[in-house]
Structures are given as structure tokens and as C-alpha cells.
Amino acid sequence: MSFYITTPIYYVNAEPHLGHAYTTIGADILARHMRQRGEEVFFLTGTDEHGEPVALAAEREGITPQQLADRNAARFEALMPRLNASIDFFIRTSDPRHERRVQEILTRVRDAGYVYEGTYEGWYCPRCADFKTETEIGPDDSCPIHHIALTREKEANHFFALSSFQEPLERLYDEHPDFVAPRHRFNEARSFIAQGLQDVSLTRPKVKWGVSVPWDREQVFYVWFDALLNYVTALSFAREGESLERFWPANLHLIGKDILKFHAVFWPALLMAAGLEVPRHLFVHGFLLMDGEKMSKSLGNVLDPFEVMERFGTDALRYYCFREVSFGSDGSVSTAGFEARYDSELANEYGNLASRVLAMLRRYRGGVVPVVATDPALDADFAGLPAQVSDLLDRAEITQALELIWQRVRRCNRYVEERAPWRQAKDPGAAAALDETLASLAEGLRALSVLLAAYLPATTAALLDALGRPEIDYRLATFADRGWGGPGVGDLEPLFPRVG
Ligand code: MSP
Asked: In the chain, which stretches have pLDDT less than 50?
């Protein structure tokens, strides 16, 4: 089966910060997990390069929008290998191949009768690049997200007949209760639709930096339509052959809650207008907060993911984001919180379990994992775990799945204490019991590492290598796989060394 997963494409008017890394890591965890299950995965990310905010930022710096886009897109692209994000393609919306496809698709939408000329008058936030409806306006005509004054716009442009999709969208939501998750975001989108849809601007006359409208060269497409279409256009040039047929509709768009309306309302309507299938699922995550406010460039309260990874490593960042804040909710992150989880969970629980088990195998059994049955008591605590984890990850419940796995990391540590292998080693009558303890712990560590491979790809690979069982096929996530034997365990550097 194929599994197509996307992140939002990131605005190039800012540099990458932890909020962007967050969505990317989430998508990567799911992409890696699906590959472990043998699915044919396509994982797309990229940059959103057009529109007024980018043009304004370039003007402030005295460079062209393309120069600004090139410079900042390169920073986002460089973030991907640093995050160990296993992307299949990085799309840039200033790519002429994307632009051509946008023109083709939107011309089709016009030919189908969903585009007309009109005059827009209303409130606009240049940072959101969004026209605000009456219910979306903050105090004193401000933007509730950016806390800046909205501008009053009046312009002649082309409209997309969103209102024609009132009933088809209501039907989509009624027939597919899992179209948007979590549930409260589904309800939010559903009630936005229920309020009655108004037609929206498809083009902008005053903006120059964008995809030009083939039937009206004075205008460019409104950046959101250009941007949303990336999910479809990329498939026509990312790979040789016809990937659109192979991968469309997308299985999952991961998005932040700030861009719900575009993805949950505009996007399916646009796809219907273009005669394309709608995506199967959207998962909406919350914001990472610093000092109670959304981390964002414009508010200046950002954690630099490059710095964090420099100090603690990529896996630690990947872990922390999804452990500290439940995926789907807002939550605060801080350097202190990061350090605490690094020490108490990664280093002391998982890292320590790994080094203890390897050391005991070496000390008591010459580094060879005894080929004996594992302890039914520990076996029982792992029973059903891979299926539970994959069920949760099918619903993008990344934090809950990690919690289930981590309970077993703790269980294995308790098992070490309960069985006290150092005592068993001193008792000549306990040799069989010690074999069972060590085999069970090696097996526990191996099964845990297969389950954690999507979260912590580098550390789990090092550990599985040291155990001599590097395979991460998801079928090997079951406990009591009993594939031991062969050469002894190898060396392992501390997985999460102390950081000063
Ligand atoms: N360019 C649009 C998306 C177009 S998709 C067709 C955009 N870009 S963005 O760079 O501003 O944001 C991209 C994603 O990063 C959004 O989903 C947003 O929610 C997420 N984050 C940005 N800051 C964030 C936090 N502080 N916390 C979590 N995610 C946040 O919107």
C-alpha cells in the first residue's frame, strides 16, 4: 500500500525555528513508522515562497523576492538532514514546474465555472496573508494571531466560488467523521462551514510576486491557492513516472491549528472544483509555546532547533517535542524542561538500560545472548504492544504511542531490579535463571528499539547494531522474537552522554 504524508510548506520570510521543526519531525516519525510496516511512503515538505509577506521582507532587506526565497529555502532544506527527516522531496513554489501546474489546475477550475470577477472589500492581515471574516477580527481591528493592525482592502479580483461547495463539504464531514482529527478540530471546521461559506479571493491585483493568472496577466494567484496546490503539483515532477496516480489522494496532511481553515475548508473545495479527490485525513497539531505565547519569529520568542541539536543531539530533540507536549494540544517547551527529560528519561532510563544490559551480557555471558526462552512475565507486559502502537500511529497519536512504549522502557528497568542479575551471577544454582534474565532483557531492549526506531532513528540504530540485530522491520517489534545466536554483542558509546 502507499502512504503519502505532507507537512505544510514553510514561509520563507522567516528562518526555521522549532515550530517548523516540530511538524517536520512529527511527519517523519509517521513516515518512518509506515516504512517499517512495509508501506510505500512518499513524504513531502518544502517552502511557500510567494506572496506579499515575502515581497515585503525582501524589500526591507533591499534584495529581490527570489533572492530572499533562495536564501531562506536553503536554510529550510538544510534543516531536513539535520533533523534526520527522511523526506522524499522538497518542493519550492517558485519552481517553474509547480507554477505551470498551478496555472493548469486553476484554469481548469475556471473552465468548470467556479471563478468569476468581482470586488473584494474587507480586512486583511499581511503576515497571515489572509482576508479575515468578521468573526476572525481581534480588538481594534487587529490580527488576533500577530497582534498587528489589519489593513482595509478594496480591490477588483477573481473570486473562487467557495459557496458552491457548501453542501458537498457538509456531506464530506458527515460521511467522514475521521476527515479531521483531533475531534475538536473537526468540530471547529464543521462549524465554520455551518456558518455559511462566502466566496473568496482567488487572485490579487497589487501583488507582483506570485504565479501569474493566465487569463489576466495583471494579477497573480492568491498565495494560499498556489501553496495548497503544492501537495498535488509535487507529485507530477518529484519522481519519474506518474506519481499522482500512485500517491493521490494524500493519506495525511499534518498541519498546525492556525492553518485549519485553509486545509479543512478551502482545500477540499478547491480539489472538488478541479475534479480531484480530497485527502483522506488531516491531523491538526497545537502550538509549541514559550512563556505562554506561540513561538514565532514575529514575537521573537523562538528556540533555535540547530542550537538545541548541537548540544543534545537530533534524537533528543525529536523525543522531547513529542514527549513534553501531547501532539494535538498546545504546550510549553523550555530549555530547563528539555534538560530534565534528557537526563531523567533518555540518559537514565533508555540509555542506562542499554548500557547495563550490554555490560551484563559481556560480564556474565561473554557478550553472547543466551538462546533460551524469555520470561513469560516480561513477555506478558509486551503482549499486544506493537498493534497498539501502530493503531495509535494510524491516527497520528504520536505522544500516546510513545507513552505506551516508554512504560515498557520503565518496566525493563524494574525487571533489572527485580531479577538482580548480579546476585544470580553469584549463585551457581541460578545459571538458568540468569540466562532467562539476560535473554529477556536483550529481547526487551531489541523490541523497544524497533518500536522507538521511528522516534530515535540514530540512537536505536546504534543500539540495534551493538546487539547484532539491526533489522527494524515492524514485524520484529514483537517480544520473544527469539532470533538470537550468532556473534556476541558489539561496543556501544553512551547513547545520551551527560551534557554540561
Ligand atoms: N506557508 C504556510 C503553510 C502553507 S501549507 C500549504 C504557513 N507557513 S508557516 O511557516 O508559517 O507555518 C508552517 C507550519 O508551522 C504551520 O502548520 C504552523 O502551525 C507551524 N508552526 C509555526 N510555529 C509554530 C509553533 N510555535 N508551534 C507549532 N507549530 C507552529 O503557515
From this structure: none
